[in-house]
Recover the amino acids of this structure.
């Protein structure tokens, strides 16, 4: 390598750069070699020098480019404040449940199951197969791939009692995840400014979607046995609401599975008030001691609009959900979801269908049931032993979370900070309340990474609880 | 195969089915073989008979299930009419441009390029690689994968003139397609009931998204050289609008590339009125005789919000778009897109990045340019020869479409019907007008399948035009 010849190229290129516009592409290494009669190594050394000086930048596989000059002036975006105005609805901050945790932390805050609980081999095989098929290069119909729509319909239909007609494939709309479904349902079935009943506590993503659309939440208390059907009836009568958003199977966060009698009476109230039940069957694949029993299967009068996501049980990269609705509601929802997202990647739909119709999917779900059971019991036992002040009202019969009541005077922000300082990430319960929280709660996800660390995590929570975090 | 033994199994199973609930799963083939002492072939024959009789249904890979009884009563969804009320905004029907055409038709209506114009090998390889990587099983951050955000920022930054600072990766939000971006931008930057300027004609998907959000469209005439900047200025002044939605490069449908002077004067008007320019760079990769020149690259004051989709140029299955915005607008948009869709499949993001950073991507784009040029010229020449009544104002220098003016008294619905009867699917221009169409137009996509059929298609259009389709 010849230093002076590399320096010579640097000087020549700096001259060239001085008169070139920002973003201009430098000549290729090959032409610089020819122009300067230097070796490729020398030319590359010169380019590295220029990169180090911040005047050019390399984009791998593309070439080397003149950098834009760094402007020192700070930008003034003040004019945007006037253009934007005050927000119509202030959106809640995104929940800490979506935070990416540090690698070495014990993460009990997240809403997603760990990779070891996913059907990894099935997912990879299905994606690889889909990458070779038609779906990789073609556009899906707006409502979804016909085979996947049939599958969603058949899954719900399989739970239909005698005398209740099953949904048809044409009643299914495939969505890029259930969050889009929530937004769309609040827009189309409720509408800005109008009331919608919601369990309290309930899923923070639904609370967020409601805030985005600007619907008015009407909280209905919901405990380990779901809501009191009388409360639901009275809330409908009082507010004139025409919809109730609920998670009857393994409610997030409480884990409640509505008893059949509650489900029947709520459904009766919904019918009596000419309303919709928006059933978010988020944990359909996460039954442990019980199976999810969709209310939508018992209804063929169009009162229940059903939402089932595959994202959590198949893979977070497979953003696919099915929405089932009948009657004019379906048409209005489809018009909205088309305007919002046009269509869902056919590749993801094909892969999702491939996973859930593979015989190994049933085997996986059976094994998952056992894994969730032992993780749930391990965490519950560890909390009972090491953090007895955190009270578990009911052991959930499915889902991914424990919902723990803390002493009333717990300083929740301080508790989460103290735990985090010790490497345990927890989610304070406040985000799951559509109004003021009625107590201090923690939601602990037992499907996250590293169940071996549950006792340690419980010890840390227990010590933080008995220590400084009690402000009262 | 023994007929009577197959019949015997059918009878036994019909008894069993009569007392089973709808949706119940039949015993496995193996256990039926054991139970009836029959061969698997005989059992399967019995099952096929039952399927033919409509009493059971087979779900491949899952099993055979008792069908739900067909209820004869028609459903009464009348109550939904009261619950839903009249729609706030009546959504336009989904454009015929999204129709799936019959296999053997000559399809000139669609908005998407044919598979042969896509980088098929790159896409399949990238998807296969992504299916083996981390992205297949993990959740993407809400704003997108950092590497993909950097790539979108660098692409726009590469076009920035000296003195204008490039966008940062943190200014980029990855979306599941540009349609979601349009909805989100109309919600956050405009808001229901408020005015937004739009070129006329303009992209029907934007008109649809505007209707969904309920913003008020203010059409600004736009021809082969884009809009008149004076018109833009006056429309801002007259309506107090704070945003202008436009496609400065290869406008859909007209194909216009705004001359530099028009772009500068429009940008000046946008700044003067403290407004946003929503720049939809839909055809960034579809330059033919000219390159797309994003206005957003010339602005670092947050006035231009930039939208670029990879869906059309990479693959319809890779629903990935980048939105670039600076200042508080970015934060407000991100809050909205999170509430709407949470995050975009990391698998699709990883595959998209893999495609666009591969050296073969540049090679593909160069070849694509040539293919689009010859398809465009072939269709334009065929129309000039065989359908001279269809007038092409200007040969587009990029994009996917010819925009043809028809005689004023053309009966468009009849023309499209007549062409379709002869196997040519065309899109009437009306859907591209935010208000009443100012004339009769056709949008013909030259990037669809089968350019060899262009002369034949032109002949059919010409004969339909000169025939009965002229109502005047």
């Amino acid at each position: 390598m010849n230093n002076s010849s590399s320096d010579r190229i640097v000087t020549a290129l700096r001259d060239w750069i001085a008169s070139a516009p920002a973003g201009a592409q430098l000549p290729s290494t090959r032409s610089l070699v020819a122009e300067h009669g230097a070796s490729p190594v020398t030319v590359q050394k010169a380019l590295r020098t220029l990169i180090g000086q911040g005047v050019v930048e390399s984009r791998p596989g593309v070439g080397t480019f003149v950098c834009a000059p760094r402007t020192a002036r700070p930008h003034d975006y003040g004019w945007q404040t006037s253009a934007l105005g005050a927000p119509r609805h202030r959106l809640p901050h995104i929940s800490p449940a979506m935070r990416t945790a540090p690698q070495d932390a014990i993460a009990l805050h997240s809403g997603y199951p760990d990779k070891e609980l996913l059907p990894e081999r099935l997912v990879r095989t299905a994606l690889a197969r889909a990458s070779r098929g038609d779906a990789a290069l073609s556009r899906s119909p707006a409502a979804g791939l016909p085979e996947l729509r049939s599958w969603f319909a058949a899954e719900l239909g399989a739970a239909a009692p005698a005398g209740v007609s099953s949904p048809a494939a044409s009643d299914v709309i495939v969505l890029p995840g259930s969050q889009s479904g929530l937004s769309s349902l609040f827009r189309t079935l409720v509408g800005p400014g109008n009331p919608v009943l919601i369990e309290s506590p309930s899923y923070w993503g639904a609370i967020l979607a409601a805030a985005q659309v600007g619907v008015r939440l009407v909280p209905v208390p919901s405990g380990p046995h779901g809501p009191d059907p009388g409360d639901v009836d009275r809330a409908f009568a009082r507010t004139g609401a025409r919809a109730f958003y609920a998670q009857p199977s393994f409610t997030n966060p409480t884990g409640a599975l509505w008893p059949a009698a509650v489900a029947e009476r709520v459904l009766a109230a919904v019918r009596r008030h000419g309303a919709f039940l928006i059933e978010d069957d988020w944990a359909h694949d996460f039954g442990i001691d019980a199976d999810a029993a969709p209310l939508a299967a018992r209804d063929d009068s169009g009162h229940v609009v059903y939402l089932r996501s595959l994202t959590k049980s198949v893979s977070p990269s497979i953003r696919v959900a099915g929405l089932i609705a009948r009657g004019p509601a379906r048409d209005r929802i489809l018009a909205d979801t088309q305007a919002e997202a046009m269509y869902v990647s056919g590749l993801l739909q094909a892969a999702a269908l491939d996973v859930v119709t593979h015989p190994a999917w049933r085997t996986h779900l059976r094994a998952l049931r056992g894994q969730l059971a032992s993780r749930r019991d391990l965490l519950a036992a560890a909390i009972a032993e090491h953090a007895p002040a955190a009270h578990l009202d009911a052991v959930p019969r499915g889902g991914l979370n424990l919902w723990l009541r803390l002493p009333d005077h717990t300083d929740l922000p301080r508790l989460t900070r103290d735990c985090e300082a010790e490497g345990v990430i927890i989610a304070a319960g406040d985000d799951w309340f559509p109004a003021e929280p009625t107590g201090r709660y923690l939601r602990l996800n037992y499907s996250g990474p590293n169940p071996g660390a549950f006792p340690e995590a419980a010890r840390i929570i227990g010590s933080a609880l008995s220590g400084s975090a009690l402000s009262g």
Chain B touches chain A through 110 residues (CB under 8 Å). Chain B has three domains: 3-66, 96-111+362-466, 120-357. Chain B has a mean pLDDT of 91. The domain at 3-66 of chain B is CATH 1.10.10.10 (Arc Repressor Mutant, subunit A).
